[in-house]
Structure formats: C-alpha cells, structure tokens
Amino acid sequence: THCITVILLTFQTNILTELKNWKLNLIQHHKLQMRQENEKHAAQVKQLQNEMENLKELLHTYEISVSRKDEVVITNLTKALEKQKERVELMRKFTLWRIQHVKAKQEEYAIRIADTHFRRALMRKVWAAWRSLSEVRWKDKVARACQLRAEDVCVQLTSDYEAKIAELTATLEQTKAEILRLHNERDQYEDTMKKAFMRGVCALNLEAMSMFQSK
Predict the structure, then answer these.
(1) Residue 144 in contact with residue 137, Cβ under 8 Å?
(2) Which residues fall in a coiled-coil region (predicted)?
(3) What's the rounded Cα separation, in Å, for the pair 22 and 96?
(4) Whole-angstrom Cα distance, residue 61 to residue 150?
(5) Cα dist from 5 to 11, 14, 133, whole Å
(6) H-run or E-run covering 206
(7) By C-alpha distance, which of 173, 169, 167 is closest to 181?
(8) Confidence band for 69, pLDDT divided at 50, 70 and 90
(9) What are the pLDDT digits (tens) for 41-64?
(10) What average pLDDT does range 26-48 have in this prediction?
(11) Which percentage of the chain shows pLDDT scores above 70?
(12) I need a surface site. Which of 12, 144, 175, 214 has the fewest CB within 10 A?
C-alpha cells in the first residue's frame, strides 16, 4: 500500500510538473505572440506616420504652389489635366468599344448556341418521327409477313389434312373391300362345307341303305 501511495504521489507530482511546464510554455508563447503583434503594430504605426509626413510635405508643396500661383505650374497642371482628360476619354471610348465588342461576341455566341440547340431539337424531332414511322412500317411489314406465314401454314395444314383424309378414306375403302372379300370367302367356304357335309351325309345314307339291303 505504501508503494502504491508513493507511485500515486510521484505520478501526481509528474503531472503537476508537466502542467506547470505546459502553462509556462503557453505563457511564453503568448508573450512571444504579443511581442510580435506589438512589433507589427509599431511598424504599421511608423509606416502610417511616414505616409502622413509625406502627405504633409506634399500638402505643403501644394500650398506653396497655390500660394505662388505660378503660371508655369498652372499651365503644366492644366496640360496634365487635359492629357489626363484625353486619356480618360480614350479609355472611356476604348471601354465602350470593348463592351460593345464583347456584347457582339456574346450575342453571336448566343445566336450560334440557339441555332445549334434548334438544329438538335429539330433533328431529334425528325429522328423521332422517322423512327415512329419506321416502327409503324416495320410493325405493318411484320404483321403482313406473319399473316402471310399464317396463311401459308394454314394452307399447308389444310393440304396435309386433306391428303391425310384422302389417304385414310382410301385405306378405309380398301379395308371395306377386304372385309367384303373375306365375307364372300367365308360364305363360299361355308357353302362348300355345307355341300361337303351333305355329300358325306348322303354317302353315309347310301352306304347304310346298301348295308340294310344286303342284309
């Protein structure tokens, strides 16, 4: 138990030390960031101050120029303004021309796309109509072919059945003739047997009579 307590205390101490180190590192990192931000802010402030000084000098120069009302300066400024105005006018004209050119290209592209879409739609409609007509014709052709085939099959079956019926009829007639012949042969045989029997009876009768007469 004492060992476990010591281990727990050691573990707790290590954790607290680690947390303390982590806190110190975090504080140092935060201070470093604050120092960097302060330096950056100071640099920006210095840059703004320099810009303000430059603007002050420019303003002072402008005030001196205005106060002197130097004709050369005014002329130069006027020429510069005219050139700037001409440049602005040229830029405006160029911009207008560029906009019109872009609009023309866009309209041309839109017309071309619409024409392509219309052609594709028309081709799809024509293809659908042709396919529907082809399917109808194909169905009619198949129906006619099936009908003709069915008619041919019916005619063939009728011919086969008629031939079979004729064959069976002929067989039946032959069978009837054979039966009639057999009946005639039986009648002849019976008649022959009767005559033979009668002859035998007559012969016996004659022999008996001769025997009685001899006695």
Answers:
(1) no
(2) 31-65, 158-192
(3) 64
(4) 112
(5) 10, 14, 97
(6) helix 71-214
(7) 173
(8) low
(9) 888 888 888 888 888 888 888 777
(10) 85
(11) 87
(12) 214
Segment 7-34 shows an average pLDDT of 82
What one-character DSSP code corresponds to residue 69?
T
d(CA 137, CA 124): 19
Tell me if 47 sits within 8 A of 40, measured CB to CB: no
Q: Collapsing DSSP states into helix, strand and coil, what is residue 32? A: helix
Query: Residues 54, 55, 57, CA angle at the centre, nearest 5°?
Result: 65
Q: Tokens 């290590």 — which residue?
A: 14
Token pair, residue 210, equals: 């001769």
User: Which residue reads 């879409």 in tokens?
Assistant: 117
Closest CA to 73 of 62, 82, 84, 83: 62
Question: According to the model, what pLDDT value does residue 74 have?
Answer: 64
DSSP line for 23-36? HHHHHHHHHHHHHH
Determine contact, residues 73/65, Cβ cutoff 8 Å.
yes
SS3 call for 70 = coil
Mean pLDDT of 127-133: 80
- Calpha distance 139→135 (Å, rounded): 6
Distance set, CA 21 to CA 12, 14, 25 (Å): 14, 10, 6
The tokens for 171 are: 């067989």
Per-residue pLDDT reduced to its tens digit, 167-196: 888 888 888 888 888 888 888 888 888 877
